[in-house]
Design goal:
By secondary structure, the chain is mostly helical. About 65% of the residues lie in helices and about 5% in strands. It has one domain. Strand 1 and strand 2 form a beta hairpin.
């Protein structure tokens, strides 16, 4: 079914299968979110629903569609440690897409969190953990507590 190919499952199914909930590396990725406070403030604050919607849309496009499509191609299966070529290419596209709305250095800076989102996708193959980590990074970047 198309939802499974995108890593989308009903929350009950996701939690029932929830191996990703017990993954200490996922919590490490979440713990890195406050490093966004080291970057200059963007000068704009977004509504929480918008941050969540953006994280969902970006993860569906760049992880569920692009990275998964790349993983289906033999040449993109190469890896260096935990990083796959599919993740590197999807992250480069993710950073390039941010050039539409952000200055070049900020757009380039999203490459590194994107590698984490892509690594989570490679590790778990589910959108929800990617969206949760992405949302937490956006939240820390756009809302300085």
């Amino acid at each position: 079914m198309w939802r499974e190919s995108l890593g989308l499952r009903l929350p009950v199914q996701t939690v029932a299968r929830g191996a990703w909930l017990r993954d200490p590396w996922l919590y490490t990725a979440l713990a890195l979110a406050p490093t966004a406070w080291l970057l200059p403030a963007p000068g704009v604050s977004m509504a929480l629903w918008r941050l969540g919607l953006l994280a969902l849309a970006e993860e569906v496009v760049f992880r569920g569609l692009l990275q998964e499509w790349l993983r289906g191609r033999t040449v993109f299966l190469r890896s260096w440690g935990p990083l796959t070529l599919a993740n590197l290419v999807a992250s480069a596209c993710f950073a390039a897409a941010h050039l539409l709305a952000q200055p070049p250095l900020w757009a380039a800076a999203v490459f590194f969190p994107s590698l984490i989102f892509g690594w989570i996708w490679d590790r778990h193959g589910r959108i929800l953990p990617c969206v949760l980590v992405h949302f937490s990074y956006n939240l820390c970047f756009f809302h300085r507590f």
